[in-house]
Amino acid sequence: MNNDNDVHDDNDKTVCDPRKASAELLKAEQRSDKSLAGCWSLAERHKAGYFICDGILYRYQKMFGHEYEQLVLPFGRRAEVMKIAHQTFGGHLAAKKTKERIKLSFTWPTIATDVQKACEICHQCQKRKRITVYDRVPIHPIPRDEVPFDA
To answer: Is residue 51 included in any domain, yes or no?
Structure first.
């Protein structure tokens, strides 16, 4: 049975296309993702803002004085969201602002480290990265004569 959300690779395995989603596919991906096991546990106990709505895992988060409902992303969809938030619509902002942009709609347990790593390996960001204090050449004093204008 072929699904519109599936892509077949060279080994004839069905791989999820991260750009397409349905509610049923998202439910299945969230349930099968082992990195979200702790989130499901918290949602079942109504802790840390996690909740389940129609079988899909969400989280309430209060940021900037507003409450947001964040969709908890399974592992297979995180890279595409980070790419869109950082490169396509983000203008290659740093990790902090990229994470804030993502957290307006999505969350997952390792969001901070994942976004930090994605920004660190971004080729364009590395080319534009400013030189830090440790990259600079040390300043040495200029040797001067004891008597000024002495020939």
So the answer is: yes
> Could you give the CA distance from residue 21 to residue 77 in angstroms, rounded to a whole number?
10
Residues 2, 6, 8, 11, CA torsion sign: negative
Q: Domain count for the chain, please give it.
A: 1
CATH number, residue 27 = 1.10.340.70
Torsion of CA 8, 9, 10, 11, to 10 degrees: -80
- Closest alpha carbon to 30 in 20, 40, 21: 40
- Asked whether residue 104 is domain-assigned, the answer is yes
Digitized pLDDT (tens) for each residue of the chain, 151 residues in all: 444 444 444 443 344 566 677 889 999 999 999 999 999 999 999 999 999 999 999 999 988 788 889 999 999 999 999 999 988 876 888 889 999 999 999 999 999 999 999 988 988 888 877 767 666 677 788 888 778 776 6
Domain range for 30: 21-130
The predicted model scores a pTM of 0.69
